[in-house]
Amino acid sequence: MNIPSRYDAAKAEGKWYNYWTENRYFHSEPDDREPYTIVIPPPNVTGVLHMGHMLNNTIQDVLIRRARLKGYNACWVPGTDHASIATEAKVVAKLKEKGIKKSDISREEFLEQAWEWTREHGGIILEQLKKLGASCDWERTKFTMDDDMSASVIKVFVDLFNKGLIYRGYRMVNWDPEAKTTLSDEEVIHEERQGLLYYLAYPIKGTDEKVIIATTRPETILGDTAICINPNDERYSHLKGKKAIVPVCNREIPIIEDEYVDMEFGTGCLKVTPAHDVNDKNLGDKHKLEVVDIFNDDATLNHYGLHYEGKDRFVVRKEITRELEEKGYLVRTETHVNKVGTSERTRAVIEPRLSDQWFLKMEALVKPALKAVLEDDEIRLFPKKFENTYRRWMENIRDWNISRQLWWGQQVPAYYYGAGKEDFVVAEDEATALELAREKSGNTSLSPADLTQDPDVLDTWFSSWLWPISVFGGVLEPENKEIQYYYPTNDLVTGPDILFFWVARMIIAGYEYRDEKPFTNVYLTGLVRDSQRRKMSKSLGNSPDALKLISDYGADGVRVGLLLSAAAGNDLLFDEALCQQGKGFANKIWNAFRLVKGWEVSDTARPEKISEIATDWYRSKLSRVLTEIEDHYARYRISDALMATYKLIWDDFCSWYLEMVKPAYGMAISRETYEKTIELFEANLKILHPFMPFLTEEIWQHMEDRTPEEALVIARWPEPGEPDESLLDSFSLVTEVISGIRTVRKDKNISFKEGLELYTAETEESISGLDTVIRKLGNITGIHYGKEKTDGSVSFRVGAYEYYIPVSGSVDVESEIKKLKEELSYTEGFLKSVKAKLSNERFVNNAPEKVVALERQKEADALAKIRTIEESLSNLQG
Which domains does the chain have, with CATH numbers? Predict the structure, then answer.
């Protein structure tokens, strides 16, 4: 078989991915094997591959490929999420380019546009995952807006409503004025921002007195309906029962008393705006205050905004501040840092707003999910530290706002038949809704035309929380064969940023609808950051093009680069050099393969003793490392599993084993040793395959002609044997001796072609007959045990023993003198630069003490080194 001189990643990746999919190696059907199941965290249908996706899906692919090799019926279900807010924004933008507003077309026309956009762009990210090597069961690809997935969502909504867990309420919600929809608490990011605290003077009606109020949002004074003071605050007790006048709008408002007011904050007086602050709303309800909503749905001011009507809230903030100052109401401003809620999707500043919304009661639902993680250990989080985060959120959970003011998504299955707030029914379809409406209203003449479906859609997370159940049809057909076989799934790999959005809610849904956990282990990856620890983002321009990385370094190189420093729960500081390291590793393995396949094989030659030692040692080493790798996988230390594999193949196999069995130049290797080498190489490929699937399959298929049934992707994981610990310990000593010999050769410029003698006071038994390894790999012509140091020798220490190599007559004196002079010149130059820095008074006086001390240590080290070099030169020159 002709083996290319270079590994061509691009050619291999396309070839083997097509081969795998054509032979349906990734497809799973229920059978008599034990299942191993992963469901993909569905990326947004609007998405393209970024570094977070690459890390997350590489880890999943490692786990699923390993499970396949371990003999499990491996099933990795892929799919995408319809992403209501993000997708609707894309479609609105596309319509805008055509000069069309969303409000100009019907809901049906808009949804046609949304589906068209989804068909055109929706599969991009899944195709990109194939480039990475993701071995998903593509025949099972799901989309959260598929008919059966949507039907599952509607069925669950109706069920929860009938259980009394879903209700409609007029509540203060988080309003995204850009997306023009409400958001759940978990979709709001609270950011610390520096702003101003505005001190405003409110006149007291019928007096010349003014009361000073501090606010961060002067534009909201137009919605003030009271001023509140603490009844224990003697400064303001004389104002009880009086009225104040709101600046600019001149509205008279009552002065009320409530112990809620913090007497220490600001001036101790609080303006109450029930329509625009949740705490103010609570005060308003308690004191029966008027509610004045001053905003439109896009956060421009409405008619209550007077002459500011139609202007954006932030524009009004600047303009009303000027007006308040001109009219003498603005007393002063102070710099103030406070937390501002922003939309997780659009980054718009959230506006608290009163609105009729649908809510899911959470208090009772969370109890089994809390118990499963924190008491019963049914579900384990890796790293364990996230259990505290999980506990805090679940124990302080609020009712989930599940409705969104959008058109793209599953429409709320509530049907209105009258003008009253309670004149509605909830049903899975219109026909059932009509029957229920006739029954509830007592009006048997109601027709479909009398029903109006709620225009809102459900929160996207309300569909994805069913994902592990719905992808197997478990909502619509709870007893079907697939859900019975594949559920619960095994591992979930995701980011800690959606621990609440998705992970916790899937656990809740699992216990509510299957009375069982949805998965056993949750592996929470870190965030991918750049070398400056900044989160990667388009806005910062620090997120590399994922597909370009694959093009430059190969998919295997990128996978290795990502995983080498991706410890569970810790952020990954990404550096392209890691991908280069991965590419270098691929080349190392390819060259090792070419070396082995290039050997001449003899059917008559007997195996050398060193080859037998090498085989026994490497089998023991492989067994030990396999056990170590198993432990790493069990603890979800994927990075550590890769590093153990990396060291085994690079150091132990390539640097030690192959050097031991490699035949001398022009000689043949015995058939027995060659076949054992191939056997061990194949074992290496199996444990490396989850990390580097393309390279390993390419080499595996070049090893010999393989049938589709013999592909590496479906091979069997090697079983660890019982390692010979004594042999491993002795060999560890031998490698240190060889390293010592190589150091002497390098330091004394002695060619490897020149044989050396080795003396040691050690006994021969201490290295258990492994002297043949030392002889070959160190080119040692003789080993003299129980001997003391001889004249003209160089020594090195390994453990408790000293080793000596006579070098007189072996050293190229002229070359050694030249090397020492070059080193002396460099060290003298270095010393000069250090002294120049220490002679600079500004540096010595202003630099930190540790920095100056470090420079002084450099000076001392350089002086000592110069003395040593000069002594060596003196000895060589006689």
Answer: 181-351 (3.90.740.10), 546-704 (1.10.730.10), 727-806 (3.30.2320), 813-876 (1.10.287)
